[in-house]
Structure formats: C-alpha cells, structure tokens
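Hi X.,

You mentioned you wanted examples for the new student's onboarding notes, showing what a folding record looks like when two proteins sit in one file. Here is a clean example. The first protein comes first, with its sequence line followed by its structure tokens.
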Amino acid sequence: MTGTLINVATVLVGTAVGSTVGARLSQGIQDRVMSGLGLITLVIGVDLALSWSGPGTTSHTTLFVLGGILIGGIVGEAIDIESRLEGFGALLQRRLSPNRESRLSEGFVNASLLFCVGSMTVVGSIQDGLTGDYQVLAAKAVLDGFAAVALSAALGWGVGLSAISILLLQGTVTLGAGVFDQFLRGEALAAMTSAGGITIIGIGLKLLGVKDVRVGNYLPALIIAPALVGLAKLAGIT
C-alpha cells in the first residue's frame, strides 16, 4: 500500500497548492491552465489508446478494444454510472460546500477518472502488492500531483476528494494483486490499457470544452475489453 499512500499524499498536496494559487489567478489564466491540462490529457490518452498495437498483442486486439468500448458504453449508459458519480459528487458538495457556484462535484469526478484510469494504476498496484516495488506508483504519484495543481487551480479543492477514489481503487488492486495478476497480462492488459486511454481522451475533450462524452459511462469497458480477450482465448480464436 506504500505506493498508493504516496499517490494520495501527492494529490492532496497538489490540490492544496492549486487551490491556494488558483484563487489568485485571473479567469484568463485559469482558462489557459485548464486548456493546457486538457491538451496534456489528450496526449496521455492517445498514447495509452495505442497500446493495442504494443508487444504481446494480436491483430484482434483492436476488435477487443472496440467491442469493450461499445458494449461498455451501452452497459454504462444503462446503469448511468456518470449520473451516479455526479450524484455522489453533488452529495459531497452539499455536505462540504453548500455554495451552489462551487465546482466541487466537477473537480471530484474529473480528477477521479483522470487519476484512476490507466495502466500505471493497475500495473503499479499489482507490482506493489506482489513484490512491494512501488516505483511505478511513485512515478504516477508525481504526475498526479502536478495534474492536481493544474486541475484544482481551475476547479477548486474538490479535486482533493479524488484521493478517496485512489485509495479505494489502488488499495483494492494492491491487496488483491495475486488475483488480478493472473488475468491482466499480455493482450488482456493491452486491451484494458487501450480502452482506458480512449476514456482519458474523452476527459481531455471535456476539459477543453469540446464535448462532454460522459466518460463515466464507459468505465465498464475496462472490464469488458480484457474479458473479451479471455473469451477469445477460451474459444481458440487467438
């Protein structure tokens, strides 16, 4: 759990710095910060999305990712995960910040998705759980810390609440590392990473104000994409 605790700490520190500095910045500077973060998020998303063509993959991997995104989007829309996340964020906002103009809920949802979706989250947590090596999570912690500064400068201290999401998700994967390691290898991991990258692209588009693609409703793709790889192997397709 060492890596996860470091990650939580950097996000909280980054949020504290960003919230303090952000209040002193003009609206124009805040907009530029948000746009810059959106562009960086797009680059990260594209890089992860292209994992389908990496080592250990096959010509079918892109189909698994496509299937994961489409089926995952349908499942997520049916469950309406995005609204549930927003509802939880709104609940936190009512309890912690009654100000209706507060962007606490938006900061919590966007930061949770950005910090918890990606291969570094899964791979780093598994390594930490199996061997105690938290270098990957430490690197992720540094990146998340700087992102928290930029994000909280525009959206406020609600970004810091994403530390709860990080603790729950990465902590669960770390404690159950032996189970996850058996399934998330090779093509299955590449498919999940690629699907995660596509959802991160959606976050980038939202941060840039291009389109709100309701990224939360695509989260089932992170399970469905690697599951399709497993089903294909059982069927002898790959």
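Then the second protein repeats the pattern, sequence line and then tokens:
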Amino acid sequence: MRYLHTMLRVTDVDASLDFFVNKLGLVQQRRVDVEAGRFSLIFLSPKDQPDAQIELTWNWDPEPYDGGRNFGHLAYEVDDIYALCQKLMDEGVTINRPPRDGHMAFVRSPDNISVELLQKDGALEVKEPWASMENIGEW
C-alpha cells in the first residue's frame, strides 16, 4: 500500500491556493476541472516531496462544510483492490463503496474516517460479486 493524498474541501479556491501555494510554498502537481460535475481537484505538494500530496476539492456551487465535512478522505494505492476489500470484509470492515469498477473503493475507519482505495496502474477487470454490489453508505 502506498499513501497517495489527503483530500480537503475548500470554499474559496483562490484564497486556498494563496495560502497553500504562496504562503506555505506548496506547488501544484496537477489540476482537474470537471465541468459536468461542477468541481475542481487541485493536487499540491512540497517542492521536494511530489508524492506527499493534498487534494483541494472545490465544488463550484457553494455549500457549507460543517461538522468536519471539509476534511474528505485519506487515499492509498493498492496492489489488488479486490483482494484487499475481501480481506477487509472478512475482518468485519464495511465497504461503503465497493470496487465495482475494479479501480476505486471506500471504507471507513472505526472513527468514521473515510479511506479511499485506488487500484495501482489503473483498473482491474470488472468481476463479481463486486460489479453488482451497491453502495452501503455515504463515502
């Protein structure tokens, strides 16, 4: 397993970029603007640690983030998403968003912290029983 990023929701993208880039000195690694979903993902890291990223998620339509909703999730890259999810289920962990696509899953820690699991090198071939599983809870 390899650490990927920690996601933070931001309400003012310009102020957030000013803080993280201009004041803290992080550099932008990549940015994805999703017109259909009306959000942007901006990945930042220290100059000498490009793999230690935070993901700023900016939803274009304003919404309040109370109760800690501005913290999104931890993300880890895994070698075999199906094997890990099966192991976690066997150990009593609820899979909130099963890896239906062979690429992404979400689980929750005992303290209800969302953990995203992403398949290394893209997606595995879609297979059952994962393909037909529904979301069990909110990510």
